[in-house]
Amino acid sequence: MQWALSCLGLPTAASAPSPKDVQRSYRERLREVHPDHGAAVEGAAQRIAELSEARRILIGR
Prior knowledge:
The protein is an all-alpha fold. It has a single domain, classed as DnaJ domain (Helix Hairpins, Orthogonal Bundle), CATH 1.10.287.110. 61% of the residues lie in helices and 0% in strands. It has 3 helices and no strands. The longest helix is centred in the C-terminal third of the chain and has 16 residues, at 44-59. The model has no long low-confidence stretch (mean pLDDT 87).
């Protein structure tokens, strides 16, 4: 769970973040690496997969 929180840039506090906070952070990070949003990030597909897995871990989707 710590990996998922750090992957999405969420604080590793004692309480779990709300699903809304997880989704917001996921979308912000996704915009940073997604080619459709102008990003030319090397390894974007891998990073997107990591972000999706982190979101799945934290909100169970």
